[in-house]
Amino acid sequence: MKKQSDFIKGVYNGIPIALGYIPLAFSFGTLAIKGGYDFWVPTLMSMLSFTGAGQMAGIQMMVQAASLISIFLVNLVINARYLVMSLSMNNKITEKMSVFKRIFISFGMTDENFTIASFYTGKLTFPFFAGLILTSYTGWILGTLVGALLMQLMPAIIQEALSITIYAMFCGLLLPSVKRSKAVAVVTAIAIAISCAFYFIPFLASLPSGINIIVPTVVAAAIGALVFPMPQEEEQTDSIKNEEAKENE
After folding, report:
1. Do residue 41 and residue 91 come from a single domain?
2. What is the pTM of this model?
3. 29 and 144 in contact (C-beta within 8 Å)?
4. 153-207, pLDDT tens digit by residue?
5. Same domain, yes or no, for 161 and 222?
């Protein structure tokens, strides 16, 4: 039986991620249209950035006419975890790759792609990453485009109704984690409390847009890291050997 190529394996692993990205990207597209942008704006953002949380925060700040510095700082804070993910994945790659290939992998290193690559038992080759990233990336762009186009064609009253779906979806993603983890619940409560302070206290509410996102995120995450430190995971040193043994069977 002919052995599957690494690229096809990456595609297979990327299909569930792509299917999961479509509704989230759909909501991002509808949010951008609700904010007064043409369909090509969110689509271009999805093509150039590929970061759901950063794009959601960015488009909301753009609608509020926030400064470029504020948008930059918010995305810097939100997306800082990708630097750690990329460095971690760089240590797991044994194949010699060019700088261009490593930049491509870093661009596509989302939370879900990182998780798949971390638990993958085979060799982490560039074709595998290419299949994984291109598949999930396609789902993200497709969802954004479809959401933006449909939103642009819908009546205003439907647009108003769909504009709240993003908040409902975030609640749906967050609540299961809050129920399972005390740490997530505490960090979430802290972030909500600080965000409420920025909304109800006149002095804090008068601060430039974006500060109300940066401060709750950084403070809540810092408290969570100090109070609930994550235990270091043991490295899977024999994952490549296991895959080689399977291939030789």
Report:
1. yes
2. 0.72
3. yes
4. 877 777 666 666 666 766 776 788 788 888 889 988 998 999 899 889 988 888 7
5. no
Closest CA to 91 of 105, 76, 80, 81: 105
Determine contact, residues 204/230, Cβ cutoff 8 Å.
no
Range of the domain at 222: 181-230
Angle made by CA atoms 236, 237, 243, in degrees to the nearest 5: 85
- Provide CB contacts within 8 A for 242, sequence distance 6+: 121
How far, CA to CA in Å, does 64 sit from each of 33, 185, 200, 212? 14, 29, 18, 13
Contact present, 35 and 166 (Cβ < 8 Å): no
**82 assigned to some structural domain:** yes
Q: To the nearest 10°, report the CA torsion of 94, 98, 100, 102.
A: 10
Question: What does the alpha-carbon distance between residue 16 and residue 37 come to, in Å, rounded to a whole number?
Answer: 30
Of the candidates 120, 104, 119, which has an alpha carbon nearest to the alpha carbon of residue 50? Answer: 104
- The answer on 40 and 76 residing in a single domain is yes
- The total of other beta-carbon atoms located within 10 Å of residue 192's CB is 12
Same domain, yes or no, for 40 and 148? yes
Q: 235 in a domain, yes or no?
A: no
Percent of the chain with pLDDT over 70: 84
Instruction: With respect to residue 118, please indicate whether it lies within any of the assigned structural domains.
Output: yes
Q: Would you say 63 and 166 are in contact if contact means Cβ atoms under 8 Å apart?
A: no
Tally the domains of the chain: 2
If asked whether residues 86 and 197 sit together in one domain, one would say no
Residue 191 sits in the same domain as residue 94: no
